[in-house]
Amino acid sequence: MTKKLLIGLGVLFVGLLVFIFLFKDKFSNRNLTTVVVEEAAKKSITESVTANGKIYPFKEVKLSLEVPGEVIKIYFNEGDSVKKGDLLLEINADSYESSVSQSNAAYHQAMANLSNSKARNSQANAQFQIIETDYNRKKTLLTTGIISTIEFEASESQYFSAVGEKEASIQTVQASKFQVESSLAGLQQTKDNLARTKLYAPISGIVSKLNVEQGEKVVGTASMAGTELITISDFSEMELKIEVGESEVLQIKKGDTTLIEVDAYLGEEIRGIVSQVAYSSNALLDQQVTKFEVKIKLIPSSYLHLISNETKLPFRPGMSATAEIITNNKSNILCVPIQSVTLRDLNEDDDFDEKTQVVFVYENDQVILKEVKTGIQDDSYIEVLSGVNEGEQVVIAPFKAISKELENETKVKLVTEEELYEEK
Q: Which residue in 215, 236, 256, 265 has the most C-beta neighbors within 10 A?
């Protein structure tokens, strides 16, 4: 081997050593897991439940007639204002007026029968007194032997016949009284039915729904589910009805503050208060998801700016809205990003698959697994009750590394969020 060749090989070897020395860190870091960290810090967290629903007047009355018939007059249109006691509509009352006349005649006939019964009773009483006097006189004469037994027995028979007649007249009077009471009740019922041919407003408000036209025949509620004719709504107070799941309903309580966004007024934040939380679900037997109704009363002062001369009623029954119910709120509490908390099985020898909440804290180019206890959370952060100190650098990305790849004392490479996305 020539001298020049040996020198060349020596230079190449030295160059290779220099290259390895200069780039060994890059080669060693190439296989490391890259992570993004964020310091555990104190923040404020608002825990909430979000659900969609419909807006309705707080007080709404759906009206039907108790008797059937043909609608002959409607005095208000949909959207009109009404006052309590206003006549809304009426049906044809001819047949009901006829029934009143018949019942009235039957009542007067019963009163006449009662008068006749009382007259017969008076006559029977007078006759009885005469026969009773004669009977008592002949009983005395019989004891003295002035009259015969046959004559006395005739008087006695007449006496007992008068007693029966008297009792019969009393019963007739009583029966006539019952007949009067029955006919009077029938008369009152026909009068009530006649009065029910007219529908009056039970509350003041707006005719929000009119389901009937003049000339239409409607069914009364006396015999079956009646035709729903008119809905009157009091728009001075509005409420939002939403449905929440069985796990969420336990977090909600009466009086919780609510932030509401109505689809018709996007960007407008309206406040409300939870007024009622259902104790029973409204799910049908064939439904798989159990839902509970929650009613939220809208605070009028929060939507006064939506009312104008052109828009006196900013909300219409059935408008869609989204409610965020504030169920808990804490300030100045230690928090970490919600994605940094994962579940791991720390008891490898345990037969039970019981997982523990953990986070990974970055220290000296590696991560340390720490068990934590957590509290309330929102969409971005979760409260840490124990396990992490303020200022510690908690791994927040990538999610795959946090949930599966990282272990205690795993060597990692620290990058920024932008660098992590560039690598991908």
A: 256
Comparing CA positions, the residue from 295, 318, 314 lying closest to residue 304 is 314
From CA 226, how far away is CA 210, in angstroms rounded? 15
pLDDT reported for residue 353: 61
The residue-averaged pLDDT of 80-96 equals: 94
CA 166 to chain centre: 67
Sheet holding 198-200, edge to edge: 198-200, 87-91, 69-74, 217-218
With b for 16 or more beta-carbon neighbours within 10 A and e for fewer, the 67-78 pattern comes to bbbebeebebee
Pick the CATH number of 65-90+198-228 from 3.20.20.70, 3.30.420.340, 2.40.50.100, 1.10.357.140: 2.40.50.100
Cα gap 343→142, rounded to integer Å: 120
Q: pLDDT of 93-146, one tens digit each?
A: 999 999 999 999 999 999 999 999 999 889 888 888 888 888 888 888 878 878
Burial 235-260 (b: 16+ CB within 10 A, else e): beebbbebbbeeebbeebeeebbbbb
Q: State pTM to two decimals.
A: 0.65
10 Å Cβ neighbour count for 10? Answer: 10
SS3 content of the chain, % helix, strand, coil (to 5): 35, 35, 30
What is the C-alpha to C-alpha distance for residues 374 and 334, in angstroms, rounded to an integer? 10
**Sign of the CA dihedral running 135, 137, 140, 142:** negative
Q: Which CATH code fits 30-44+333-423?
A: 2.40.420.20
Residues 6+ apart with CB under 8 A from 18: none
Q: Which of 193, 199, 195 is nearest to 89 (CA)?
A: 199
* Gap between the Cα atoms of 382 and 200, Å rounded: 57
Question: Token pair of 187, please?
Answer: 């008369």
